[in-house]
User: Fold this.
Amino acid sequence: MTRDTLTREQIVKAAIELLDDEGLDGFSMRTLGKRLGSAATAVYWHVGSKDNLVALASDRVWEEIALPDLAGTDWRTATTLMATDLHATLIRHSWLVQAFSSLVTYGAGKARYDDHTLAIYETAGFTDARADRAAAAVLTYVLGNALGPAAQVSLTRKLGPDGDARLSDSMTKAREVAAEFPRLRTRLDSTAAAEYGSAAENSFEFGLEALLDGLENRR
Assistant:
């Protein structure tokens, strides 16, 4: 495609697909150009820079998150729905977590999410700075829970074709070290411990509920 036949919409869509496949570290304008059947220079003409394109792709991903109707949904249910949807989105697009720490991401998609989040807390009775703190607390919690899965995807990709085997070998060594400590050894010996270092079942839901309990007490 020439720059005249390419559109920004096509570029951003292809960028998201490439980022999902290769991650932020494996993303390049040249590879994206090949995927689009175009020269990298044509892509640059539409988006300006690689960082700007990643910011555009990031913002588009935020638009995937549904916004609950506040007229018929209580604040805790609405918060849970948005936090759970965001968590699923961060797992689906694992590169987005890394983009948070390496780029300034902005745009109407994230602003849409942030504005609706604040509306939830204001409806619940949080005002001004309290609404901001509540929103930040939940967002930080969700991001923290997405870090582990995102890091595992990135590490497996970095290790290459034999990544699963190498990762399994490292986990075996980690379990051997953990077995020297009584509480960790007890968990490793239980049938519930599927893998050392993995999150317990329903830990995200448990933590989110506990966080919302705390916010409820501060309303």
Remarks:
- The longest helix spans residues 129-159.
